[in-house]
Amino acid sequence: MTAIETTPTEKKCPCGKPAAHLTAPEDSADWACRVPDPQALLTAREVVDLYPLSVPALDRWRLEGCGPRSFTVAGRVLYPRGDLDAWCARVGVSQGPRKSPEPAAGAVECKPWCEYGDGHAGATYRADQCCYSPQLRVELSTHLRIEESVIDGPEWVPGPDYVNVHAQQVAGEDPRICISHAGEDDVFYTRDEARQLVEALQLLLGQIEAQA
Predict the structure, then answer these.
(1) Is 40 exposed, middle or buried (0-12, 13-18, 19+ CB in 10 A)?
(2) CA 140 to CA 153: how far, in whole Å?
(3) What is the DSSP letter of 5?
(4) Three-class HEC string of 124-151
(5) Are 69 and 90 in contact (CB under 8 A)?
């Protein structure tokens, strides 16, 4: 029997291009194909049409390494719909446009820990008059996490190697603590929840050190 020679099938991106193009620089148009459905990429304006967020807040979060995941494609900042929905679910933001947002009424009194300290007088809405503390970073040893690959499915990849922690407070609301894993996963805590987290960590450390 004569063996039939076969040529290995080249893996392709869902867009139809060879998988090799996925290594394109992040600022190139080809890079958008790393996202399974290019139609699911939203501009900041499209994001605020879906959720009660604001473009200034999205810009600030992106620059500070927190908020919903975003990509820069050919000079445009875009938000994958799936990541946006997941982030909003985590932080308790329900879908729907802003309903009669309260306009900013001049400067507000910043908290002593606010890194801006300017009263946020330039904000359009009161919800954007938010105090942010300086970010505290905790360096981590590199660890593995599961990531969904558009080509090979779930795979283990190196995870974030630092955690950012900061406080934020919108004028007239209670402060919250945000913990961000390398700007990817934002979790917000009330003061009571933050205290419980600290107490849990201290309890675990005490148990570990007692056995050392």
Answers:
(1) middle
(2) 26
(3) P
(4) CEHHHCEEECCCEEEECCCCEEEEEECC
(5) no
Which of these, 35, 18, 29, 128, lies nearest to 80 by C-alpha position? 35
CB 84 within 8 A of CB 47: yes
Contact 71, 32 (CB under 8 A): yes
Where do runs of H (alpha helix) occur along the chain? Answer: 44-50, 55-63, 81-91, 191-210
- Domain layout of the chain by residue ranges: 11-98, 109-212
Burial of 132 per CB tally in 10 Å (0-12, 13-18, 19+): buried
Task: Return the closest-CA partner of residue 71 out of 18, 128, 25.
Answer: 25
Per-residue confidence in pLDDT tens, the chain, 212 aa? 444 443 444 444 444 555 555 455 544 555 455 444 545 788 888 888 888 888 878 887 877 777 888 877 666 788 888 888 888 888 878 776 655 567 777 888 999 999 989 998 888 777 788 899 998 988 887 666 655 544 455 566 666 678 889 999 988 888 999 888 765 667 888 999 999 999 999 999 999 998 86
Per-residue pLDDT, 177: 93
State the pairing for strand pair 130-132/144-149. unpaired
Distance CA(23)–CA(36), nearest Å, equals: 15
Distance (Å) of CA 114 to CA 59, 61, 120, 140, 203 = 18, 15, 10, 26, 30
